[in-house]
Task: structure prediction
Amino acid sequence: MAVPKYKTSKARSRRRRSINNRLVAPQLTECGTCGNKVLPHRVCPKCGFYRGRQVLDLKDMA
Result:
């Protein structure tokens, strides 16, 4: 089994760990009907369409 020759510094180990903890901005796609930015695989909250089909009737919800 390999044994490290020198102690790994705090900066080096924290830099290595921080790569997996970074925040990632959500990937937004454009709604095909109204052009609103929407998370993928979600119904558009502005027009109520999903994949070109009306899923929510927003007139009833208002």
